[in-house]
UniProtKB/TrEMBL annotation:
Active-site residues annotated for this sequence: H117
Coiled coil: none
Name of the protein in question: protein acetyllysine N-acetyltransferase
Keywords: Metal-binding, NAD, Transferase, Zinc
Listed PROSITE patterns: SIRTUIN
Binding site for Zn(2+): C125, C128, C150, C153
Boundaries of every Deacetylase sirtuin-type domain copy: 1-248
Entry annotated with the keyword Zinc: yes
InterPro entries noted in UniProt: DHS-like_NAD/FAD-binding_dom, NAD-dep_sirtuin_deacylases, Sirtuin, Sirtuin_cat_small_dom_sf, Ssirtuin_cat_dom
Species of origin: Streptomyces hoynatensis
Length: 258
């Protein structure tokens, strides 16, 4: 069955977590083999207070960024499927907990992606707020600067990601909340739905009448709230699900009375 001509197409919101990028070689953090479970000390490298107060933590953080597979990763079948759905004419918005930029690399326009936790592809000065490409900072590290300072004011540079102990960008969060309230379908994919406030988007969307679909290997706190739970591998399950939506087999929510 295809979407009837003239029928309103559903607004599809995709809340993506680390599991979407594991097929690209980007490790997750909280899964059974996640980084935080394997090396709890690694969490200090992305904790704001530790980072700002300890030069050794910063030096280790720069080495972690240098060696991170996220900046060398390529989009996988799941990222490509989301971009393909957007090209089909279905209104799509992605709210991602990931910082790897792979949704955009797959061809999804920047304006359709809300990066809740920032981007690992840029650095920001904690003093003056100047931003620059991560590649430039890593080139300085490779040239022998273990803790490169801001070229404008000499302040401490950090990845333009949200570290533990930092607030999310209120503008980005506000847009994500608006998407959750307005969408017809919310697909939570590759996320444990345990990290707030991102996890709250799932019940918020369901409470406003959206169809909630969860695609994740492990159980989440909101499985009982979901209209559909899919446990199959994301690289296979998400493309199949989005093809079904593109074909009109999951339509927009019914308009609420009043």
């Amino acid at each position: 069955m295809t979407t009837q001509e003239g029928a309103r197409r559903p607004l599809v919101a995709i809340l993506s977590g680390a599991g979407v990028s594991t097929d690209s070689g980007v490790p997750d953090y909280r899964g059974p083999n996640g980084l935080w479970r394997r090396d709890p000390e690694a969490e200090k490298l992305v904790t704001y207070e530790c980072y700002m107060n300890d030069p050794e933590i910063r030096r280790r953080s720069w080495l972690m960024r240098r060696d991170s597979p996220a900046l060398r990763a390529e989009p996988n079948a799941a990222h490509a499927a989301v971009a393909r759905l957007a090209r089909s004419g279905i209104p799509v918005r992605v709210v991602t907990q990931n910082v790897d930029g792979l949704h955009q690399a797959a061809g999804l326009p920047e304006r359709k992606v809300l990066e809740l936790h920032g981007s690992a592809r840029s650095v920001v000065c904690t003093g003056c707020g100047a931003r620059s490409p991560m590649a430039e900072a890593l080139a300085r590290v490779a040239a022998g600067e273990p803790d490169p300072a801001c070229a404008h004011c000499g302040g401490i540079l950090k990845s333009a990601t949200v570290m533990f102990g930092e607030r999310l960008d209120p503008e980005v969060l506000g847009q994500a909340l608006a998407v959750a309230r307005a969408c017809d379908i919310l697909i939570a994919v590759g996320t444990s739905l345990q990290v707030q406030p991102a996890a709250s988007l799932a019940p918020l969307a369901a409470g406003h009448g959206a169809r909630l679909i969860i695609v994740n290997a492990e159980p989440t706190p909101y499985d009982d709230l979901a209209d559909e739970v899919i446990r199959e591998p994301i690289g296979r399950a998400l493309p199949a699900l989005l093809e079904r939506i593109a074909a009109g087999r999951t339509g927009p929510r019914e308009q609420q009375p009043g």
